[in-house]
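Sample pair:
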Amino acid sequence: EKFDGLADGIIAIIDTPPSLGFLTINALTAANEVLIPVQCSYLAMKGLQLLLRTIEGVREHANPDLDILGIVMTMYDSRTLHADQVRERLLDHFGGKVFESFIPRTVAFDYATVAATPLVHFRPESPGAAAYRKLAQEVMDRA
C-alpha cells in the first residue's frame, strides 16, 4: 500500500557489498537511483570518492539516467567531534542529498547480527531501529 503510485508500484532494493566489484557495477547499471551509506570516518570519505567516480563511469558507459537518491551517515557517534566533522563535510559537498536521518553507532546492531535477526525486529524500540524507520520514510518521500 505504501508504494501505490510510485513508478508503477515497483521498488527493488539491491544491497551490495561494500566494494566496487562486478556485483556493485551491475547493480548500478540496473538502478534508477542509488542510496549511499557512508560511515562517519575519514577513510569512508575516501571510499565515497571512489564510489562517485564509479557512478560517473556507469553513467558514461551504461546508465546515463543513474541518479543519487541520497547519502546516509552510518555508525554516527554524536559524542565524537570526528563524526560531526564528517557530517559537516558531507553537507558542504552534497547539501540536500544528505539525508537528515543518520544511523547511530550502537551495540544493538551487533546483538541483532549474532541473533541473525533484523534490528527492527530484534530491538524495535532501539535508537538504531527508530533511525532506520525514519530513513525509510525519507526514502519514500524522495522516491
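The two ends are 15 Å apart (CA to CA).
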